[in-house]
Amino acid sequence: MKNKKKTLGKFLMVILIFHVFALAPFPAQASEEKGYGQKAVVFVLDVSGSMKTNDPNRYAIDSIAQLIYTLPTNYDVGFAAYSSEICALQGFLGNSQRSRIMEAAQAVAYNGYSNAGAGLDEAVLMLKNSNAEEKEIVLLSDGEILMEDEETTSLSEEIYQRAVLEAAENKIRIHVIGLGEEMEDTGNSIFQAAKKTGGGVYYSPQALDIQKSIDSITEGQLHIKQMTAAIVDAGEKEENLTIDMAFAHAGTVRVLLTSDSPIGNLKTNFSAESARQIGGERYSLIEITRPKGDKLDISFEGTPGNQVRITLIPEYQVKAKADVTYKDSVPNEEGALYYERVAEIAYGFYDAENESLRLWTEEYFNHSKVSFLTEKGEEEKALEAGEILVTEKVREDSVKHVSFAFEAFPANVLDIEGVEVSLKGPELLPVEEPEPPPYELYGGVVLGALFLILIILLLCRRKKPRTGFAPEEPNRPVSSNSSYVGRLNIYITRTKSGYDISPLAYDLFRLPANRVVSIAEILENCGIKEHFLGAENIYLSSGQGRSIILTNQSDCCIMKSGEILMKKKSYQLFTESKVDITFEDEISELTFQYKDLKPSEMY
Predict the structure, then answer these.
(1) Nearest to 122 by CA among 67, 168, 163, 174
(2) Packing angle of the helix pair 116-128, 150-169 (nearest 10 deg)
(3) Which residues have a Cβ under 8 Å from the Cβ of 516 and sit 6 or more positions away?
(4) CB 371: neighbour CB atoms within 10 A?
(5) pLDDT at residue 433 in the model
(6) Residue 179, burial from CB neighbour count under 10 angstroms (0-12, 13-18, 19+)
(7) Of all helices (H) and strands (E), which one includes residue 227?
(8) CA-CA distance, 165 to 512, in Å (whole number)?
(9) Which end of the chain is more exposed for a tag (fewer CB within 10 A), N or C?
(10) CA–CA distance from 21 to each of 12, 17, 312, 478 (Å)?
């Protein structure tokens, strides 16, 4: 009994001494500037003696590099290695210092027992003290917990289970990679850490399979977006290739080369603000800051018969902007007070540091899915030419807050702020003056007066053909000295009589420069006999710069490109302008388009 207590005491003393002193060689480092959605990962590696058999070529060390160099900038990374006790520990480091983790990993030797409890406990402790929003542990082990005797083995298992519970309580997910034949049973206690924390379970029969497990974790669990740019079968000679890179405006692009065999003599040629290169025996990383071109030339030497995979990992920090345009129309329902307004909102995305730099306009990003969230819920839209188009009806002034998510997007978006969109409600419809109530005519005098007026009107009609406009036009606008140059293409879309009228053309260039003409006169000169109420009070005159001036003195509803042309105002129309008129009888409708003509067309 005394011997057992002494053994237990020695074990606890080892743990206590390690907590006090073991951090000294690998001090925890403050991460780089915290950004939106800061995340943290600790890689826990089993370096017990059995790893000499299961991983004789130390592929597990390269797997750490594959993981940490794939992670975007907003990840802090830590490392712990265990055998009989903790034999390497590196606190959290930011992106620029990750090579120090590799130095710590490469320094470990495979020997001793397997104290997974101590390893996992250290990883959980690191993450509990982290302010990261998402916390993950990747544990690679080739067997169950095994110490020098049953008592210390049981104690390590107890510490392991307690660490798993603490991880679950602190929302830390644990992903377990089991290496070798002993880990084929995924129901063993080591894998329970993943099952109890919502992590992933991965089995690698051989050390060469670790790379596949790392790929599954980065893509399936951590949701790191990466693109395989090429898979090259290495030969006897140097390999040379040019990679098309769709991420020319990314904040950072990592180019990761991985292989089952050594990669040597890596050379690159590209345009960027800055870059750095890190190399291992079976991996190489090129980290490109703000690339400026869409091509990457690369050359390297591989081992004949082996493949080299080249992976691109892009990341962006983004500022969203919203551009709003409105389309107004007259509602069909009676008694409506406001126009019907539709807002077309274009969400564009720009570099957070250089807001004039538009992102994702490359063909590669077309049809990529982006989710945006408003108070009405979440909706997914496809990106087209670097923007998302959304239309919605607007009934009143409002302000909407929109946030974005990029789960299905083919690049890593590390930081994007929501955007606030101010929408303006529709304007009031013009108020129509009520028609005067009809007067009852009594007496012969009133009847005689009306009869006399009727005779006068008939006489006037005999002297002058009906024109459809009043004989006196006190509101007729003043003419201009500019010349007419174009033509009106006229489409009568609806008449009170119900007759169809073919499209018309009226040559304005034949008019004198000082002539002011009404729509009624134009229709009469085109041979139209039907009367359009109000047409006599809509005038056209020549304007400067090959334009015409439209003056509205009528109660007709006149619209140009969704804009109401108000009464008693003049509007300048340039070539290709299109105007829609609903006449005062609220039945007849007409559309005309002002077309410019070349001198050769004026005959």
Answers:
(1) 163
(2) 20
(3) 476, 477, 478, 479, 539, 540, 541
(4) 16
(5) 58
(6) buried
(7) strand 227-233
(8) 93
(9) N
(10) 14, 6, 40, 96
531: nearest Cα among 497, 503, 556 = 497
Fill in the DSSP letter of residue 591.
Answer: E
Burial 442-473 (b: 16+ CB within 10 A, else e): eeeeeeeeeeeeeeeeeeeeeeeeebbbeeee
DSSP 163-196: HHHHHHHTTEEEEEEEESGGG--TTSHHHHHHHH
> CA-based angle 39:77:117, to the nearest 5?
105
Q: What is the torsion angle, in degrees rounded to the nearest 10, for the CA atoms of residue 355, residue 360, residue 363 and residue 365?
A: -170
Task: Please tell me the pTM assigned to this model.
Answer: 0.64
Statement: residue 471 has pLDDT above 70: no
CB 342, CB 319: distance < 8 Å:
no
Q: Which of 257, 303, 312, 102 is nearest to 266 (CA)?
A: 257
Q: DSSP letter at 431? A: P
Q: Are 359 and 351 in contact (CB under 8 A)?
A: yes
Q: Which domains does the chain have, with CATH numbers?
A: 2-221 (3.40.50.410), 227-315 (2.60.120.380), 320-423 (no CATH), 486-601 (2.60.200.20)
Strands (E), 180-306: 201-204, 227-233, 239-244, 252-259, 264-269, 272-279, 283-291, 295-301
Tokens 């009031």 belong to which residue? 428
From residue 134, alpha-carbon distances to 75, 166, 222, 246, 501 in Å are 9, 15, 9, 29, 70
Phi and psi at residue 78, in whole multiples of 5°?
-125, 170
Closest CA to 518 of 557, 576, 475, 463: 475
DSSP state of 537: G
Contact between residue 298 and residue 268 where contact means Cβ atoms under 8 Å apart = yes
Which of 416, 384, 388 lies closest to 320, judged by CA?
A: 416
Q: What count of Cα atoms within 13 Å lies in the side-chain half-sphere of residue 20?
A: 6
What counts of helices (H) and strands (E) characterise the chain? 10, 31
Evaluate whether 63 touches 140 at the Cβ level (below 8 Å). Answer: yes
Q: pLDDT band at residue 438, thresholds of 50, 70 and 90?
A: low
Buried b / exposed e along 303-325 (16+ C-beta atoms within 10 A): beeeebbbbbbbbbbbbbebeee
Angstrom distance (rounded) from CA 72 to CA 37: 11
Q: Are strands 295-301 and 239-244 parallel, antiparallel or unpaired?
A: antiparallel
Question: Which of 3-9's residues contact partners 24+ apart within 8 Å by CB, and which partners?
Answer: 4/151, 7/149, 7/151, 7/152, 8/151, 8/152, 8/155
The residue whose two tokens read 């388009």 is: 593
| Residues sharing a CB contact under 8 Å with residue 472, sequence separation 6 or more, in sequence order | none
**pLDDT value, residue 36:** 52
Cα-flanking dihedrals φ and ψ of residue 8, to 5°?
Answer: -65, -40
Q: Are 415 and 318 in contact (CB under 8 A)?
A: yes
* Tokens read off for 167: 């991880």
φ, ψ of residue 472 in degrees (nearest 5):
-110, 130
Among 20-24, 52-56, 171-175, 397-401, which stretch is predicted with the lowest mean pLDDT?
20-24
For 535-574, what is each residue's pLDDT tens digit?
999 999 998 888 899 999 999 999 998 899 999 899 989 9
For residues 496 and 221, give the distance between their C-alpha atoms in angstroms, rounded to a whole number: 68
Q: Are 594 and 577 in contact (CB under 8 A)?
A: yes
Burial of 300 (0-12, 13-18, 19+ CB in 10 A): buried
